[in-house]
Amino acid sequence: MSESSRQGQGGFPRRDAEGRIVALGDLLGISLAGLVIGLLALLLFDWGFATVGAGDFGRANGWLAIILPAWLYWEDFRAWEFGAARVVAGLAAAGLAVLGGLLVAGLADGLPPLLSGGLAAATFTLVYAVVWFPGVHWLSRRTG
Predict the structure, then answer these.
(1) 111-136: pLDDT as tens digits
(2) Which residues cross the membrane (predicted)?
(3) How do the domains of the chain map onto residue ranges?
(4) Among residues 41, 10, 28, which one has the least CA distance to residue 72?
């Protein structure tokens, strides 16, 4: 697909000719939408299993809600040309996002796993986007 036809479609998130997301707001918006969809799917499955007596409601692991945001992040990672910028930015973003998510999950220890994991997944989603996007852009400019 050519660049002119890609821009003519006006898709969301907006991407450049290489397929990279062009704005932090787009990355945050689509990843948070994916997180909400994941949480709603988890709620639905957890409610269904609780209804048929296969467990108590709220016992599903809320961390599963990061599946769609992680997929988006992986696709954006792949769109960047191979090099130190994307690897360093990806590792730093993933490390800080996991650390932030685990910290929030630890602070929310008394809550049901669905809620504490959901809060941790939300933290992961936000931290990864906020570290990855400016990090990979800055590092790619620095490394040429």
Answers:
(1) 988 899 999 999 999 999 999 999 99
(2) 21-45, 57-74, 86-108, 114-133
(3) 3-143
(4) 28
